């Protein structure tokens, strides 16, 4: 009962925050509880009978976490997990408050948590995860992380806490270097892509593609082919066809990551066919290749959070898609952040919108993309875009940054955070 007062206070704060701002304020109770009961987070996360699995890295965390949770549940495990919007320390604590008893206990066999790399490194010293999964190293938030070596150091600090296994990207030299520091008896499970898959993606996978050797077939988890929303993945247990939640090689790599993490978390209980079926059945993760029905129209939402995801998602669009709206919002503080992205493949964008409408329109123009209209008022842009007749090729497609996504969903009356979808 040591944490009962803090839990009660946290729940009261949560209720007040939701009254003040429906659908928001989810981090506030976590901030309060972390302040008055700093041991609550670590004690609860370390208390699951089958341990804790951490998923962290620069990108792919939300999709991999959702895939891994689906696999574990398919194997009969009761899993506690956090929404993708709650991957920093106060968000993690708020997520725990949703299910914890007054004693701080949560019913569940195992916890799978997506963690921000910075906050994960901050609390790593108090955690004892069984498995740590590392996705890649990129500087995707230049106002927080100044260089790749800083991100690598954060991930190394988290990986050092693993008690059984570290699962990492064999195609990322930063992570390959990090693997050299993993000491027995902690195992290293690698995932990656074949040379053929990499050559089919000439702009790379968004990772630090400097590894000097590809992962051999039969060692770890290897993506051998990608075609639209389907991939071939080689496991030590055999070769399997995996359905993906959205188009793109990055989603195939996410699936390989989740399979590698599941193999380590489940051990001898892992069943490859069951795992593949679970991954193949999940829908798109919030805003990431998600197809929704709005005002009688089918619309695909494409979230871009950094130059690599922007490039990968553009390259994965159906060729010739003829109705595209791009909405870049205030979360992109410096528009030059996206200038490394080659947008020429879009050909034509009907509307550039959001608070950075003129800036993204300028980038598109430099890439010889025709922009029919610049409309800073996102609500007006969305209304006009949806009022257009059905496209001749592909779906109506909205490409947005995180701020553009939230404003788009709010204007269209859709869920505005991933917690509302769970």
Number of helices, where a helix is a run of at least 4 consecutive DSSP H or I residues:
16
CATH class identity of the largest domain? Alpha Beta
Q: Structural class from helices and strands? A: alpha/beta
Strand order of the largest sheet: 2-3-1-4-5-6-7-8-9
Q: Going by CATH, what is the homologous superfamily of the largest domain?
A: Mur-like, catalytic domain
CATH architecture of the largest domain: 3-Layer(aba) Sandwich
- The overall number of domains is 2
The share of residues in helices is 25-40%
Distance between the termini: 29 Å
**Weakly predicted, low-confidence segments:** 418-422
Pathway: Cell wall biogenesis; peptidoglycan biosynthesis
Domain Mur ligase central: 55-197
GO molecular function, one term: metal ion binding
Keywords: ATP-binding, Cell shape, Cell wall biogenesis/degradation, Ligase, Metal-binding, Nucleotide-binding, Peptidoglycan synthesis
């Amino acid at each position: 009962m040591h944490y009962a007062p803090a839990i009660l206070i946290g729940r009261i704060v949560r209720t007040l925050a939701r009254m003040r701002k429906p659908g928001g304020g989810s981090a506030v109770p976590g901030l309060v509880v972390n302040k008055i009961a700093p041991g609550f987070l670590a004690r609860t996360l370390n208390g699951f009978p089958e341990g804790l699995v951490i998923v962290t890295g620069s990108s792919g965390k939300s999709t991999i976490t959702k895939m891994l949770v689906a696999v574990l549940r398919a194997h009969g495990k009761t899993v506690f997990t956090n929404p993708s919007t709650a991957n920093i320390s106060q968000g993690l604590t708020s997520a725990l408050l949703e299910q914890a008893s007054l004693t701080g206990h949560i019913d569940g066999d195992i916890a799978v948590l997506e963690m921000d790399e910075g906050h994960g490194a901050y609390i790593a010293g108090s955690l004892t995860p069984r498995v740590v999964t590392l996705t890649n190293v990129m500087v995707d938030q230049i106002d927080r992380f100044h260089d790749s070596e800083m991100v690598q150091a954060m991930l190394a600090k988290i990986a050092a806490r693993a008690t059984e296994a570290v699962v990492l990207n064999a195609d990322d030299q930063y992570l390959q270097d990090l693997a050299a520091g993993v000491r027995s008896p902690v195992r290293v499970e690698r995932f990656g892509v074949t040379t053929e898959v990499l050559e089919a993606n000439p702009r790379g996978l968004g990772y630090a593609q400097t590894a000097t050797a590809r992962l051999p077939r039969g060692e770890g988890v290897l993506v051998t082919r990608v075609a639209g929303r389907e991939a071939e993945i080689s496991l030590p247990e055999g070769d399997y066809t995996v359905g993906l939640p959205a188009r793109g090689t990055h989603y195939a790599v996410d699936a390989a990551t989740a399979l590698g993490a599941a193999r380590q978390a489940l051990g001898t209980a892992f069943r490859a066919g069951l795992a593949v079926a679970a991954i193949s059945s999940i829908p798109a993760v919030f805003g990431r290749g998600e197809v929704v029905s709005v005002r009688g129209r089918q619309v695909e939402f494409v979230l871009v959070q950094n130059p690599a995801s922007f490039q990968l998602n553009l390259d994965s669009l159906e060729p010739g898609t003829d109705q595209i709206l791009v909405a870049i919002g205030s979360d992109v503080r410096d528009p030059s952040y996206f200038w490394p992205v080659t947008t020429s493949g879009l050909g034509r964008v009907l509307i550039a919108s959001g608070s950075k409408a003129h800036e993204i329109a300028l980038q598109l123009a430099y890439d010889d993309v025709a922009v029919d209209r610049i409309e800073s008022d996102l609500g007006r842009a969305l209304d006009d875009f949806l009022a257009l007749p059905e496209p001749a090729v592909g779906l109506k497609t909205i490409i947005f940054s995180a701020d553009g996504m939230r404003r788009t969903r709010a204007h269209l009356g859709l869920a505005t955070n991933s917690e509302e979808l769970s």
